[in-house]
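for the recovery benchmark. tokens below, seq after
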């Protein structure tokens, strides 16, 4: 049975090397996997999920009613929309999978993760409705439009999207605490606890991979892990470079992305034992080359005269160059590291490092907040 599994937001961006898409996986295979090897750890995680630490967290305070969006009408909406699609697709996946799972422990955990992603998605959707620009579900493909991915790789990619989500939210939150003048919307005040949900989700998928060591033991599997990890880093980088919202947050988007990538890598290589050298100039140069290719292609698309015809072959040459950069990163030497010992399997990954490095020099603060405030709180689902 095929189950929809979101890995990344769905946005049609043909100029990217890897356009994000939705995936589906196989519930029969999922049901055939035994987690008995790590049953105690899964039970510990289940108790953590069922404690539901954020039960009361996602309730808007009155200040959200006193926001005007015009100053960042498109930039902020793009950020909300992109986040919302990721959260909503996670909600769909986890809620759907839990209905079909036979293992009681896994079912309880998936149910809790579906609950969390539903809250996150509702919270973002509320803001878009408040703007008068509600989230358009029609942009999500139906099951037929999704690509199949084996559970082995769904665990890898979902783990990555959760841990990247944790570091993305947490770094923004830490930056806002250091520079409250850039905290232009109340939603950022919720990121601190919000991202703890993402960290719990990532712990679950890390444990899921550890419970199936036969999936990830061979060198071919390690190469597959490297391939998907690079895909996540590259997609994030190429999407963020087009987003103007980071300027409004007072964040240097590239420093932010490289920080998130390094921190994700630090956590992830403890799972599978392959460390990609993300801090090298070589790694950064490959990503920047892809960025420059995409920028040049975007420029080429603007031509309306004869140059639009000559732009087409050049565009394909740049696509080929992007594939070459990807291949270069695949062939870049990696390090074999010792995976984390079992005693640390249920521990959380490290908090992000110093956020003061993220500040964009010369950024001018913009705020959407205005006064006076309403008095009653508003439920997130209103
Ligand atoms: Fe989430
Ligand atoms: Fe999540």
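predicted aa per position
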């Amino acid at each position: 049975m095929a189950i929809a599994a979101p890995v990344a937001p769905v946005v049609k961006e043909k100029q990217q090397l890897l356009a994000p898409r939705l995936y589906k996986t196989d519930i029969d295979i999922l049901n055939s996997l035994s987690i008995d090897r790590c049953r105690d750890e899964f039970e510990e995680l289940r108790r953590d999920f069922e404690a539901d630490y954020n039960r009361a967290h996602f309730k808007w305070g009155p200040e959200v009613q006193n926001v005007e969006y015009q100053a960042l009408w498109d930039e902020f909406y793009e950020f909300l929309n992109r986040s919302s699609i990721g959260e909503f697709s996670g909600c769909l996946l986890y809620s759907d999978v839990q209905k079909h799972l036979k293992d009681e422990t896994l079912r309880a955990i998936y149910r809790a993760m579906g609950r969390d992603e539903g809250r996150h998605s509702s919270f973002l959707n509320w803001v878009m409705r408040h703007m008068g620009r509600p989230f358009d579900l029609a942009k999500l493909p139906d099951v037929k439009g999704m690509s199949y991915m084996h559970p082995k790789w769904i665990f890898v990619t979902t783990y990555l999207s959760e841990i990247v989500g944790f570091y993305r939210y947490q770094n923004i939150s830490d930056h806002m605490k250091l520079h409250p003048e850039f905290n232009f919307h109340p939603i950022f005040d919720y990121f601190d606890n919000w991202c703890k949900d993402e960290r719990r989700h990532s712990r679950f998928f890390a444990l899921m991979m550890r419970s199936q060591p036969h999936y990830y033991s061979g060198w071919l599997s390690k190469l597959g892990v490297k391939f998907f990890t690079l895909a996540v880093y590259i997609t994030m980088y190429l999407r963020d470079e087009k987003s103007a919202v980071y300027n409004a947050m007072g964040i240097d988007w590239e420093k932010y992305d490289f920080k998130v990538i390094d921190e994700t890598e630090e956590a992830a290589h403890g799972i599978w034992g392959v460390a990609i050298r993300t801090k090298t100039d070589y790694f950064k140069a490959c990503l920047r080359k892809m960025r420059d290719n995409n920028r040049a292609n975007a420029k080429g698309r603007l031509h309306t005269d004869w140059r639009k015809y000559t732009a087409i072959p050049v565009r394909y040459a740049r696509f080929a160059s992007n594939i070459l950069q990807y291949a270069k990163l695949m062939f870049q030497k990696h390090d074999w590291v010792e995976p984390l010992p079992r005693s640390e399997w249920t521990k959380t990954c490290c908090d992000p490092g110093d956020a003061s490095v993220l500040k964009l020099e010369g950024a001018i603060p913009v705020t959407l907040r205005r006064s006076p405030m309403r008095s009653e709180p508003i439920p997130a689902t209103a």
